[in-house]
Amino acid sequence: MIESSGPSSFPAGPRVESLGIHPVKSARGLSPRRWYFDARGPILDRHWMIVDASRRFLSLREVPDLARLVVSLRGIDEPRSRQSCTLDLEFDGHRIEVFASDDAPSAATLWGSDRLVIDQGDKVAKWLSERLEREVRLVRHDPEHDPWTQSDPPADNAATGLSDGYPVLILCRSTLAKTLGSEWSPRRFRPNVLVGDTDDGVEDGWRRIRIGDVELELVKPCVRCIATTVDPDRGVRNDAEPLRMLKARRTWDGKPTMGWNALVRTAGRIEVGDTVEVIETRTSDIEFSPNA
Questions:
Q1: At CB < 8 A and 24+ separation, what contacts does 86-89 make?
Q2: Of 70, 192, 201, 230, whose CB has the highest number of CB atoms within 10 Å?
Q3: Which phi and psi (to 5°) does residue 64 adopt?
Q4: Cα(248)–Cα(238) distance, integer angstroms
């Protein structure tokens, strides 16, 4: 079973502080020591999602309790392919194993796009419905049947799993702390790669970076929504924070932003402690008002 990494202690400099992999969309993520990234992003990231009775995806926006759904992967150490594996789910001490179903693809809706997914069966649907107190089903992505690509121009027709639209999300801890204060956990922003030991806002000037074997292109600031107001441990929505502060302090095109969406230009492994090498820079158009 994949184990999460402990606290890191590396020399000063732009290095990977932690990795975040979210097998089930909006559920609690994993923090492995190393992971493989291909053109679709981290392997098995957002590979499963939960849909409602109308087959529309559910997220923390509608169901904050999803933050309490604990996920682990059984039978793999460092996956190098998107073949499904056994999924273990836990909610308030109740557990279930989910074995990959090979049922025929069926339709589901993700942000207005019709996607073809594989339903994971009645047993896990009943288990999740009881705990989330609504009728839901678990589905998984199958690239063979669902070769979806993101039409947003900065995405360059990137293919993803069941993420909101981009393969990778990068976040720098110093920018988060400078903007909102150190009390706000990076987990609220669900980065795939959390970078430590940088000047605040430095990533706004990165265009291409190399981490380990992986070359990434930062293409668009990540616009934030009400999901950031959900406590990642308790699954409870706060009032307006930290989204209100983001709207006042850090914006792009008038929208609250934190972190960068990125494309994988060279596949490979990223490991906690890897150095971030800046290959190409850009002029930042992020607006930052720390005293707002």
A1: 87/23, 87/24, 87/48, 88/1, 89/24, 89/27, 89/124, 89/127, 89/128
A2: 192
A3: -55, -25
A4: 18
Residue 254 neighbours by CB under 8 Å, 6+ apart = none
Phi and psi (nearest 5°) for 219? -115, -20
Q: Give the number of other CB atoms < 10 A from CB of residue 5.
A: 16
pTM: 0.93
Burial (0-12, 13-18, 19+ Cβ within 10 Å), 28:
buried
Q: Structure tokens of 143? A: 């690239």
Paired strand residues for 139: 49, 119
* Segment 169-197, tens digit of pLDDT: 999 999 999 999 999 999 999 999 999 98
Query: Residue holding tokens 């590979």?
Result: 47
Q: How far apart are CA 250 and CA 58, in angstroms?
A: 27
* Cα separation, 69 vs 26, whole angstroms: 9
Q: In the predicted model, what is the mean pLDDT of residues 233-251?
A: 95
